[in-house]
Design brief:
The structure holds 2 protein chains of 2 kinds. Chain A has 2 domains: 2-131 and 286-293, Rossmann fold, CATH 3.40.50.2300; 133-281 and 317-390, Rossmann fold. In chain A, helix 8 (235-250) links the parallel strand 8 (225-231) and strand 9. Chain A contains 13 helices and 12 strands. Chain A is α/β, with parallel strands linked by helices. Chain B has a single domain (22-31, 50-366), classed as ABC transporter involved in vitamin B12 uptake, BtuC (Orthogonal Bundle). In chain B, 76% of the residues lie in helices and 2% in strands. Chain B has a two-stranded antiparallel sheet. In chain B, strand 1 (177-178) and strand 2 (181-185) form a beta hairpin. Chain B is globular and about 65 Å long. Classes of the chains: A alpha/beta, B mainly alpha. Chains A and B meet through strand 2, helix 3, helix 4 and helix 13 of A and helix 4, strand 2 and helix 13 of B.
């Protein structure tokens, strides 16, 4: 009897040990702000990066959305207090305050914060993952301004979210890029002065109101914007819808007005018909790297900057479209039968902008890469106002 | 003495409450909650989530730990105030859905204390007074429109809500803005914050203000002449007027009392909710506080004590909804559907009870719209 019991105990112990190994290498929590999943942009990218890492390293990912900003602190607190997670990733600047408040209480818990740098940089257990959004926004802005001048449009548009430092990076780069593009256009066409192209930019105060994105875009199109740059994650779905409807009403299939995607490669959306380019910010890569560092034991707190030179930000090219189609097929966002239509539409739409403009964008990219052009950025109201004064773009 | 005042009143209440199921109101609510949970469970089953695991996570998150309990209470605090706003006017026979806008104003007024220094405590009180004045001031508009011009409060408060929203949005971005962080207003200074009650949670001393406010309103409504007049006007306006009650005064008073509550709700959010103690551009933090308060009032039978209980329950749903994601991997969308179903079933008893009144109001509003249409039609016939 005693031997049987001992045997049973050993077997049970064995099973439980195997069970523990079978559970995998750990758990990662992904806390999202009010934008939430399903934006095909910023928030989804955070999830895609974590999901890819989970597959590669055999981890479990739990994503926690926030219904209101009042949930930020409790969500980070609850995931921290549970002690179950090897890494807690805050996807979005807005979670910064909450992470900053909770992290000191759990010195052994590792955190990664996307887009948060300006005020949590000295927390040893937070890895800050920040981007130089001004660089790819400058490329998008230059493209938009030159296309507007070429097609005779009066404005280039931008629909932004809240007035956070991250979005000031976008605006600063966009303004700089537009100015550069107009200068370039003047030189190329041999004009005496810069063409009259202005910027329409609206801070909607929202990262989750898709309808607001649509109505703001409609207003900008009505005022004569050639394109609208989505700088508010989920709102882009509404932006693109407005542009698509505009084309339906005008009975056009390609050409202006265009949509500029953000964060993810959004060129494929709407069958690739109206997105001229996307200002890509590889949130998924950043999330993947953070998880990888925890798995490899190389996690260190502090700032990690993603920029043009290390591929952290870029303007979308053909290769990126193919990659996003491949990922879209895998994630069932894109139907197998549609992929060639998307590529065809995309190429046709891009051809509505002359080749020299695309070459000029490449030229600006090369200049930023070799450091001969430094794109200005802004973090505070004062700094962005200085840039607005320098590049008024009325 | 309490016995004397209580008996006839409580008999009436009990009579009203038992019309539907013949059950004690608490039992009735419990039954409604169970029905709601059952429907939620079926929905989760259909969508492929484990309802047992999800509800276990809900209760664990809401009431299973000190942190959860504190978090549940913290979510309930602002809702007590806005539920009172709705309940007071409901008792006076009006549908005041203006709490939403008054909360915005109250929060904005509270933020203004960041512009000056005062000793701790006094600073907090000044902020609360500002918020009360702002909330009450914003409620006077619809009240005056109703008293002087007969404008229906549903229409005017909806309009005032939008005006408040954009006014406060403007103030947040342009006037109250933090010069170092443009996405938010200045933070309330430490001397004007409600101290945190349970450390490492977002529960602050504002909970005592909420309880006190509910008790004060209870006392005013059931133990003062003014309160008697408000309730009498609500039960039967014609009889009340015949009895010599100044209906204009009761309308104004109930709106102002409600406005004070909504203003305090705004203050309790910006002064008592860590970590930011500020409003964000787009007002995401305070949006829907007023409307959620209406649901709490319904579940709490428009009674201060019922509202306190309902707010704890409602806060628990919000706090537990978060942990459903963390411990049961139920997506937020499903969580919202399930908690929504539970809230609706719990509000049904009270909704049915006041249905005749709602129907009456709807008929009135429809008649008004029809009249406007006719007027416009006859005008357009004349003009060309």
């Amino acid at each position: 009897m005693k031997r049987i019991l001992t045997l049973l105990a050993v077997v049970l112990l064995g099973i439980s040990l195997v069970g523990m190994i079978g559970l995998g290498n750990g758990k990662v929590a992904l806390v999202l702000d009010v934008g939430g999943r399903g934006d095909l942009s910023f928030n989804d990218m955070g999830f895609w990066g974590a999901a890819r890492a989970a597959e590669d390293f055999g981890l479990e990912v739990v994503d926690v959305s926030s219904a209101t900003p009042a949930d930020y602190l409790p969500n980070i607190q609850a995931t921290s207090a549970s002690g179950e997670y090897d890494l807690i990733i805050g996807v979005g600047f807005l979670l910064g305050d909450a992470m900053n408040a909770v992290a000191p209480n759990y010195p052994d818990q590792k955190y990664a914060a996307i887009d948060v740098d300006t005020f949590t940089a000295n927390q040893p257990n937070i890895m800050n993952l920040v981007f130089k959004e001004e660089q790819m926004s400058a490329l998008v802005g230059a493209l938009g301004a030159m296309a507007a001048a070429h097609h005779g449009y009066r404005y280039v548009g931008a629909v932004l979210g809240m007035e956070i430092p991250v979005l000031f990076h976008f605006e600063a780069g966009y303004r700089f890029g537009m100015d550069w593009g107009l200068q370039k256009y003047m030189e190329h066409e041999g004009l005496a002065e810069k063409p009259e192209v202005g910027l329409l930019s609206v801070y909607t105060g929202s990262f989750d109101n898709i309808a607001l994105g649509k109505s703001t875009t409609e207003a900008q199109l009505a005022q004569g914007a050639i394109a609208v740059y989505n700088v508010a994650g989920p709102l882009g779905i509404g932006d693109l819808e407005a542009i698509t409807e505009y084309h339906l009403n005008a009975r056009t299939e390609t050409g202006p007005p265009y949509y500029f995607g953000v964060d993810a490669n959004q060129d494929w959306m709407g069958f690739g018909m109206h997105t001229l380019a996307s200002g890509m910010k590889l949130v998924d890569v950043a999330v993947y790297k953070a998880i990888e560092s925890v798995v490899n034991g190389t996690f260190v707190g502090g700032s990690n900057v993603f920029e043009l030179s290390n591929g952290g930000v870029k303007i979308s090219k053909a290769k990126d479209l193919l990659d996003s189609i491949e990922a879209g097929l895998k994630g069932k966002r894109i139907e197998y039968a549609d992929q060639y239509t998307i590529i065809e539409n995309w190429a046709e739409n891009r051809n509505t902008v002359p080749a020299w403009i695309w070459e000029a964008v490449d030229e600006l990219e090369a200049a930023i890469l070799d450091g001969s052009i430094v794109v200005p950025t802004a973090n505070t109201t004062g700094e962005i106002n200085a840039i607005r004064d320098k590049y008024p773009l009325l | 003495m309490r016995e004397n005042q209580g008996t006839s009143e409580s008999r009436l209440l009990r009579g009203v409450h038992r019309t539907l199921t013949g059950l004690h109101p608490a039992l009735e609510s419990l039954l409604a909650a169970l029905v709601g949970m059952a429907v939620g469970a079926i929905l989760m089953r259909i969508w492929g989530y484990n309802p047992w695991k999800a509800y276990a996570a809900l209760f664990r998150g809401a009431y299973g730990s000190a942190f959860g309990r504190a978090s549940s209470l913290a979510r309930g605090v602002p809702l007590v105030f806005t539920a009172m706003t709705f309940a007071i006017c409901m008792r006076a026979g009006m549908f005041n859905i203006g709490a939403e806008g008054q909360v915005f104003l109250g929060a904005a007024a509270a933020i203004t204390v960041a512009f000056f220094h005062l000793p701790p405590g006094l600073h907090l009180i000044v902020g609360l007074v500002f918020a009360m004045i702002a909330g009450a001031a914003w409620s006077i508009g619809p009240a005056l429109l109703k008293v002087t011009r007969g404008v229906h409060e549903v229409i005017s408060t909806i309009m005032f809500n939008w005006i408040a929203r954009f006014l406060v949005f403007f103030l947040v971005v342009n006037v109250l803005v933090d010069p170092r962080r443009a996405e938010k207003t200045l933070s309330i200074p430490v001397s004007a914050r409600f101290p945190v009650l349970v450390s490492r949670t977002d529960l602050s001393y504002s909970i005592f203000l909420a309880i006190a406010f509910a008790l004060v309103i209870y006392f005013v409504l059931w133990h003062t002449v003014v309160g008697y007049e408000i309730r009498a006007a609500g039960l039967n306006p014609t009889a009340a007027r015949y009895g010599g009650i100044n209906s204009k005064r009761t309308i104004l008073l109930s709106f102002i009392l409600g406005g004070i509550g909504a203003g305090l709700a705004g203050a309790s959010i910006v002064m008592g909710q860590p970590p930011t103690y500020a409003m964000f551009s787009g007002l995401p933090m305070i949006t829907n506080t007023g409307f959620d308060g209406m649901a709490v009032a319904m579940v709490g039978r428009n009674h201060p004590i019922g509202i306190l209980v309902a707010a704890v329950f409602f806060g628990g749903l919000t706090a537990g909804g978060r942990t459903m994601q963390i411990f049961a991997s139920t997506p937020l969308e499903v969580v919202r559907v399930v908690t929504g179903v539970i809230v609706i079933t719990m509000a049904i008893p009270e909704l049915l009870r006041i249905f005749p009144r709602i129907k009456g109001e709807l008929v009135k509003i429809l008649a008004l719209i029809r009249k406007l249409h006719q007027k416009r039609a006859s005008q357009s016939e004349e003009s060309p």
